[in-house]
What we know:
This protein has one domain. The chain has helices spanning 85-88, 132-135; strands at residues 9-11, 22-26, 43-45, 48-50, 52-58, 72-80, 103-104, 112-115, 122-131, 136-137, 140-141, 146-154, 158-164, 173-179, 186-193, 206-218. The protein is mostly beta strands. The strands form four sheets. Strands 1, 2, 5, 8, 12, 13 and 16 form a seven-stranded mixed β-sheet that branches. Strands 7-6-9-15-14 form a five-stranded antiparallel β-sheet. The protein has a two-stranded antiparallel sheet with strand order 3-4. A hairpin with a 6-residue loop joins strand 14 (173-179) and strand 15 (186-193). The termini are far apart.
Amino acid sequence: MKKETKKGIGIGAGITxxxxxxxxxxxxxxxxxxxxxxxxxxxxxxxxxxxxxxxYIWRAIGENDPGAGTGGFMSCFxxxxxxxxxxxxxxxxxDWNTTGGNVSGYADYDDWSRDAVSxxxxxxxxxxCFTQAQAMSGGAWNGSRTRVTLTASGDETIAxxxxxxxxxxxxxxGGIESDNDSDFDKLYINFYWDDNDDGYSIDDDGxxxxxxxxxxxxx
Length: 219
């Protein structure tokens, strides 16, 4: 029988408000911004060559606003497995912490941990934004030229699995555009990961640690 618990918030060492049976945590590492010089999948575009470039490597940040004219990580949260991600993630809500009972484990603070109900299945979701220089071609947004790699361990393992922002549900997740308007300066995509079975979950008194989120665009 599954244990029902009160949700609490663990900050730093884990100050708790309520009975904790599972916790989602983020690895305590420094945020790094890099440029990926890998020349894989290079294609000509006129006289310009394009390749996968690293937009951002996220390691220890909660809710984030990349700022005007900048793409990158915005938030991470757990979407209940009872939801249909291709429908739910079309919502362009910036703060998913306020969307109601369909979201848990929302990333509020740096180096945070968040209590969650154990054995309650979920999708892992990473919300990102991309600039026109990063994800627009021919005057239109092209989400398929974006991708996010997630690495997590603990009660569940996600071994550097890549999800493309192609707007469709793939076997192990998908990149769902929540705002695609060519007149706007950014494209917003909610990337989600699915175990293609019964959802990811945290065991009683267990944990899930997200150690890295790598955001890329081909430009």
